[in-house]
Structure formats: C-alpha cells, structure tokens
C-alpha cells in the first residue's frame, strides 16, 4: 500500500461551454481529474460522494482505469453539478450554476484499506474535512493538499492548521498571494513553507508552474497546446501526474524526482485541456504520454 | 563587421515610479536597453537621436560599454522623455506623459560602417523608418525587428512589407494576437512565419517566452526574480541578449544556438528588472551573467 494513492475530493457532473463547443453533464470533479491522471502511474483509491443519478457508465469508465471506487458513496439525491463558461482566453471561468446537491453533506469515511495508503491527496474541499481525513490516516509517507480562494477567505484558521501537517501544497498563483498577502511568488512560497509544507507547487495555467523545495526555486513552462478545448480540471490533472509519479518513486525528497514530477504534471495537464471532461486523458495511451514527456524534457535541454 | 550589431531605435530619458521607488530622467529607450545587453556579447553600433539636454555622463557610460555612438545624432531641442508608473503586479505601465521631442523628427542616417554590419536590429520605431534603414544596409546576414500595438494599428501595411524582409521577429503576446487576429500563440506564430520571418520570438513577461523556428515550438520560463524593481526595457534587454548571442555565433540557423540565445535573453532580462533604468545591466559582470545562465540551464535540465 506504500505506493497507493488515496484521493479525497469532489465527483461532479460538469456542463461546460467554450469557443470549441460544449459538454452536458460530463464526468468531472477534483477527485476524478486527479485520479484519471494519477492512475497512469500508481494505484488510486477514491473517496467521494455521488447522487443516485450518477451514470453507471462513468463508474465503469473509472474502474477500467484501475481506480478503486469502494469509497465512492452514493447518497439519495443528485450529484454535484457545475455549469460554466470560458471566454476565448480561457483564463477565467464564469459560473452559470453550482448545484452542490449531495456534495453539500459530504463526510468522507475511510475504510481500513484507505487508512493504510502510503500517499494521500486532499483535493480542494473544506479544510475541516481535509483535517478529519488526515486524522483517520495511518502513517502516510506523503501528504499533499490543494485548496481554493473560498476556503482561504472563509476558513483561514482551519487551512493553516492543515498546512502544518502536509508535506506538499498545490495552489495557483492568486491563491498563493491571497494566503500570504505577498505578491512576489518567491516570497509567497517562503511564507507558505514557513506554515509547514516542505514543498510548494504554484500552478500558473498557460504560464507554467513553479516548484519550491529546500531553497530551490524552479520555474517550468506549460507545454504549448494548439487547440485548448476545455481547461476544467487541468490543475487537478497536473496534481495527479505529479503525485502519481511521486507515489511510484521510492523517495520523493529529491530535487530530480520532483522535477520529473513537475514535468509529468505539466504533460498530463496539457493533454487534459485538449478535450472536454476527462475524454483526452481517458483515451491517453502510455506511449503517447511518454512521447510527450520526452519531447517536453528535450525542449528544455539547452546544450 | 560580420559579428557587429547595428541597432536603430529610441534613446530616451525615463521617469518611472514603481512600488520600490522612482527614478527621474534615467537612461532609457529601446536602442539603449538593447545595446547595454547585446554589448555583453558582440560589438554594437547605435543609431538614434538625442536632444541637447542629453547628459554627457550617459554618453560616457554607453561608450565605456563598447557601444559605438557615432550614429547618435544630437538635434536642437530636448531628448525623448517618457514618464510612467507601474502597479504592484508590474503587468501594465500607465503612461503619465510622453514627450517625443527630437525623436518626433528622427530620420535614421547610416554611415558606411553601419551599412556593413552583419547583424541588424530594428527596434520599435515607425515601420517606414525601419524599412528605410533596411534599404540602406549592405548584405546583413541576420535582420530582426520589434514593433508595438501602435504601429500594428496605424501602419499595418508598412509593417507587413517590412516583415517580408526580416529573418526574426520579436513581439509580445498581445502584439502577436493583434497582428494575426489569432488568439492561440502557436497558430499566431504560424501566420507570422507566413509573413516572412524564419523565426518568431514571443515575449510573455514573467510567463517566459516562446520560440518558433522550422516547425519547432519551444516555451521557456522566465528566470524567477524575488524583487522586481522596474520592468521598463526588459523586452529590449531580452532581444539584446538574444541577438548578441546570435551575432557572436557563426551560424544562427540552428535550434540549439537559438535555444541558447533564448536563455541568454531570459537571463539578461531577469537582471534588467532588478533595478531602475539600465543600472543593473550596467554593473553586471560577465561571471555574474554566466553564473545565472548556468543556473537557469541547470534548472531546466530534467534528469
């Protein structure tokens, strides 16, 4: 179980409109995007909640990807549904509707297998729930979390308590600034490191990502994509590739391992934006993944 | 003269205010920022115009950096003066005042030595003037140009005529989109390549830069800087490092040479933002430059 990842987060149906089309009630949610990506590298167990309307086809689709759904509870009512639209620049999503439905009452329950997982990813949910999950765990060798502006405003104290106990924090640049009240990302990351996590990953969309670990500051570009169809879930897909690679590695506390994890995260998220929902990652072959990884690494090799 | 760079552009006095302070009538202008950077790599000859108020100390400062000022004309009147302010995020400059002064009547005049230079950089001026300069040249082995939103709107035809005769175009991402009416940068670069230049460099500020050459698409991150003092001239400093490195190379038509040029451009621009005007680049030592270059290259090496 040392290399198995437990992810706790949202499972959703997403209705998304972009300049390249639309999707209606596509498979989404942070735990789903994360798992689809991480399961390319390591076994994944998912804890989440869906309603009675959650399609059996989605359930089978996830299982085929070697994602254990024993922790995916079904509650009376409907599945979390998000409806949004992206502008031409894909920078900001306009939320048309958010129906939390059964997700409003989500109380993650872990079974024995869950608590023995070596790697834990706490996707973006209420930091009090993230804390509850963490307390139920055995002795995971690596704990990472994500969060969002909403929790930074409303549950700052709970979030700071959580940060004191995680190894790795994923945030986007606005969240890093909001959490630290510091605009410069190097300074912000230093403040975040002081809150607990040994490593900080700042996600910057098509501007790439930054890693801060042991005094090292590393900026990496996004993999350029000619046709961005839907950026929903790109951040969770990034985290999935990153954490998946770390879970499969004997020791994550190594800058070269972390750089490869950044690269796999980048590559996985570049696939995810090429189609709606988890379609592109769903049909991704291992050779395609490794080919793009090699291309990305080669492009950054300056000889 | 094969490795000597001729640059034609503005020489200015800049009064800039940022969150880290202000400078009054500091040395600036596209030709100056470019030359200060390029002269780290190759001999530079500058063609520009200043007024009678242009300080002798600035002239001596430039000459000490091995920048030939024979082509820097002095006209009756005052030097181009730009006054601006940056917000905390340094993304957009607010212009408080632009006094073109003698620059309004700038007609670049080349002497025999100028026309024999092997490398030409047409910094951001009226594309009709850029064209006039190009016509006066002998047979340069490499011609590059920059431009801006103002000329794209007002002198589109002149600019397109110019592009048909340059090897390399530097633009920022907004300019690339404005010029091509295409949002995606890979597609935009393909359209730009169709207009003439064999290589396109898209500058993206703290999001890094992109190079398009011979079907290759390369994204590179900015070098992260902890204290950005003044971003004025960072783009010209980038172009200076890039062109300087190419001028010193026997053959620029090689992807590895171009990648090193991108890296030197990135590194030079990272220095330029650390102080007002050309102060940081002015006191930059070759070992400091090469150290940061090596650090940057190493950070991107994924092993």
Question: Spans of chain A of 5+ residues with little confidence (pLDDT < 50)?
Answer: none
CATH arch. level architecture of chain A? 3-Layer(aba) Sandwich
The helix count of chain A comes to: 12
Return the string of H and E elements of chain A: EEEHEHEEEHEHEHHEHHEEEHHHH
Largest interface: A-B, 35 and 35 residues
Helix fraction of chain A, binned, reads 25-40%
Which band does the percent of strand residues of chain A land in?
Answer: 25-35%
Radius of gyration of chain A: 18 Å
Would you give the CATH topology of chain A?
UDP-N-acetylmuramoyl-L-alanine:D-glutamate ligase
Order of neighbouring strands in the sheet with most strands of chain A: 5-4-1-8-9-10-11-12-13
Taking the alpha carbons of the first and last residues of chain A, their distance comes to 41 Å
Question: Could you name the key traits of this structure?
Answer:
homodimer, 303 residues, alpha/beta, UDP-N-acetylmuramoyl-L-alanine:D-glutamate ligase, 4-stranded mixed β-sheet, 13 strands
Give the arrangement of secondary structure elements.
The structure is a homodimer of 303-residue chains.
Chain A: E1 5-8, E2 12-18, E3 21-28, H1 30-38, E4 44-51, H2 56-64, E5 67-75, E6 80-86, E7 93-99, H3 112-115, E8 119-122, H4 127-136, E9 142-146, H5 149-154, H6 156-163, E10 168-172, H7 173-180, H8 185-194, E11 199-203, E12 209-213, E13 216-220, H9 234-247, H10 255-272, H11 279-282, H12 286-299
Parallel strand pairs in A: 1-4, 1-8, 2-6, 4-5, 8-9, 9-10, 10-11
Antiparallel strand pairs in A: 2-3, 6-7, 11-12, 12-13
Helix pairs in contact in A: 1-9, 4-6, 7-8, 9-10, 10-12
């Amino acid at each position: 179980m040392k290399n198995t990842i437990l992810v706790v987060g949202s499972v959703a149906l997403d209705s998304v409109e972009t300049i390249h089309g639309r999707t209606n009630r596509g498979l989404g949610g942070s735990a789903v995007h994360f798992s689809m990506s991480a399961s390319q590298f390591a076994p994944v167990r998912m804890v989440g909640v869906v309603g009675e309307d959650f399609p059996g086809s989605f359930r089978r689709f996830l299982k085929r990807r070697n994602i254990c759904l024993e922790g995916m509870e079904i509650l009376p009512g409907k599945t979390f549904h998000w409806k949004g639209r992206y502008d031409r620049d894909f920078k900001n999503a306009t939320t048309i509707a958010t129906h939390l439905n059964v997700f409003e009452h989500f109380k993650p329950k872990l079974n024995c297998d869950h608590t023995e997982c070596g790697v834990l990813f706490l996707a973006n949910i209420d930091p009090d729930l993230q804390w509850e999950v963490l307390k139920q765990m055995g002795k995971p060798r690596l704990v990472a979390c994500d969060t969002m502006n909403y929790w930074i405003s409303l549950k700052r104290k709970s979030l700071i308590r959580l940060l004191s106990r995680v190894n790795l924090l994923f945030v986007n640049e606005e969240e890093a600034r909001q959490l630290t009240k510091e605009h410069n990302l190097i300074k912000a990351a230093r403040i975040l490191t002081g809150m607990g996590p040994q490593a900080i990953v700042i996600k910057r969309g098509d501007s790439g990502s930054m890693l801060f670990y042991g005094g090292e500051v590393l900026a990496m570009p996004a993999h350029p994509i000619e046709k961005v169809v839907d950026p929903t879930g790109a951040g969770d897909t990034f985290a999935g590739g990153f954490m998946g690679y770390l879970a499969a590695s004997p020791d994550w506390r190594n800058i070269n391992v972390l750089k490869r994890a950044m690269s796999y995260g980048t590559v996985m998220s570049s696939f995810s934006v090429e189609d709606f929902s988890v379609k592109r990652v769903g049909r991704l072959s291992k050779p395609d993944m490794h080919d793009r990884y090699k291309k990305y690494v080669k492009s950054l090799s300056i000889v």
